[in-house]
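fyi for ur records
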Amino acid sequence: MITKRSNGFIFIYIVAASAFLVLMAIDMVGIGRTVLKAIPVGTLMILVFRDMRGFVRICLTGALLGSVCGDILLDLSYANIFIFGLVAFLVGHLFYTVLFFRYAKSPDGFGKVMMAGLVLFAGLMIWIFRGINPALYGPVVLYILVIVTMSIGALLVPAENRLLFWGAIMFIASDVVLAINKFLIVIPYGRIINISLYFIAQFMIIMAARAIWADVAEEGTRN
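which gave:
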């Protein structure tokens, strides 16, 4: 749901995300780039905190806060910090998952097909990454299971369109690019593709969530 009240936040989101991608493309590193990376999702978090209420606000804010922490951790150059970024995003996905399943309904025909596809996808990813560092394999498997579960929850949330679900799928696509690029083969412009998909995914999820739960926010304001 895009309104005049949110246009300023969306403008900041697009500018900050684009600026970060430019810095990444020219391989400029440093604390300034790391801070810049956190601004887009941080902007969405402020927007959610302003417009949403109650349980929805708590879950969306928690999901975005986990993502911001992951953004910062994964952009730092310290050794062995990847696992902490993974945990931060895992926590964020758990907040999304709890919210989505709170409002989930029984799947229709399309939903059942997509659920089956997501389960098969999870199994395939777990098999593909079986040869990575054993210390990381367990957390990676857990992450795969959580993000697929989150996407199934997004699929089951009733809405006029499936923007929430496609946002979750974009998140999966982003993480697949990241994981393949990190553990299997180098993808040309892999990090730029990964982060671009990630920024799009977060934007889609939050815009869809604001549209779906707008009435909940309004009820919270009246009560």
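The chain has a mean pLDDT of 91. thats all i got for now
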